[in-house]
Amino acid sequence: MNASWKPIHPDEDKFVTTALTMVKKAGAVVRAAFEQPSCDVHTKASNTDLVTETDQAVEKLLIQGLKGAFPDHKFIGEESVAGGQKIEYTDAPTWIIDPIDGTTNFVHRIPMVAICVGLAVKKQLRAGIVYNPITKELFQAQTGKGAFKNGFPIHVSSTKAVGKSVLILQLGADRSERLV
């Protein structure tokens, strides 16, 4: 923990604790849907930009839960914005939500999915939560408090040589005929 750290908002810890509770509830929804043999899938901007009813239900659950606890907060949700909602990025505490990061994986029942929630206060990112409800890996970080996986501190590697490092890269998805 950084001893010189000062919160921008006095209730930041409460915000994060509430968000963690909501993310775990949302995780149960994702896990239950993942265990089903299939799901309804729709496309957004392209044939690789997918959305499911679970994406929409999880975003709604998170926004309603957080708004119920913090009615003056703002929200930027991936599915809401894709549906035409205008982005309002102000100094008010703002939650940035991707209800299922990895929807393509979710649709194909590949367990590499995550609920991602970030918190900005006065336009500064203050906290982030990434939860894979299938593998039950919960990552969280908060400015000045460090980063954790399932409650245990995590740190970047001290390895400086690329040859001794593990690098992972995902290039995304493209279903164009030219690549097939």
Automatic annotation (TrEMBL):
<keyword id="KW-0460">Magnesium</keyword>
<comment type="similarity">
    <text>Belongs to the inositol monophosphatase superfamily.</text>
</comment>
<feature type="binding site">
    <location>
        <position position="98"/>
    </location>
    <ligand>
        <name>Mg(2+)</name>
    </ligand>
</feature>
<feature type="binding site">
    <location>
        <position position="78"/>
    </location>
    <ligand>
        <name>Mg(2+)</name>
    </ligand>
</feature>
<dbReference type="InterPro" id="IPR000760">
    <property type="entry name" value="Inositol_monophosphatase-like"/>
</dbReference>
<dbReference type="Pfam" id="PF00459">
    <property type="entry name" value="Inositol_P"/>
</dbReference>
<feature type="binding site">
    <location>
        <position position="101"/>
    </location>
    <ligand>
        <name>Mg(2+)</name>
    </ligand>
</feature>
<dbReference type="GO" id="GO:0046854">
    <property type="term" value="P:phosphatidylinositol phosphate biosynthetic process"/>
</dbReference>
<dbReference type="GO" id="GO:0007165">
    <property type="term" value="P:signal transduction"/>
</dbReference>
<dbReference type="GO" id="GO:0008934">
    <property type="term" value="F:inositol monophosphate 1-phosphatase activity"/>
</dbReference>
<feature type="binding site">
    <location>
        <position position="100"/>
    </location>
    <ligand>
        <name>Mg(2+)</name>
    </ligand>
</feature>
<keyword id="KW-0479">Metal-binding</keyword>
<comment type="pathway">
    <text>Polyol metabolism; myo-inositol biosynthesis; myo-inositol from D-glucose 6-phosphate: step 2/2.</text>
</comment>
<protein>
    <recommendedName>
        <fullName>Inositol-1-monophosphatase</fullName>
        <ecNumber>3.1.3.25</ecNumber>
    </recommendedName>
</protein>
<keyword id="KW-0378">Hydrolase</keyword>
<dbReference type="InterPro" id="IPR033942">
    <property type="entry name" value="IMPase"/>
</dbReference>
<dbReference type="InterPro" id="IPR020583">
    <property type="entry name" value="Inositol_monoP_metal-BS"/>
</dbReference>
<dbReference type="GO" id="GO:0046872">
    <property type="term" value="F:metal ion binding"/>
</dbReference>
<dbReference type="GO" id="GO:0006020">
    <property type="term" value="P:inositol metabolic process"/>
</dbReference>
<dbReference type="InterPro" id="IPR020552">
    <property type="entry name" value="Inositol_monoPase_Li-sen"/>
</dbReference>
